[in-house]
Amino acid sequence: MSGRIPSITFAILLGMCAGADASEVLAGGPLYGADASQGGGITCRVFNSGNSRIRFIQNRIFDNTGAEVPLFTDTCTVLAPTKTCAYGTVIAGNLAYSCRSITNDTTNSLTGTIEILNHDHNAVVQQQPLRSNELQR
Question: Is the whole-model pTM more than 0.85?
Answer without folding.
Answer: no
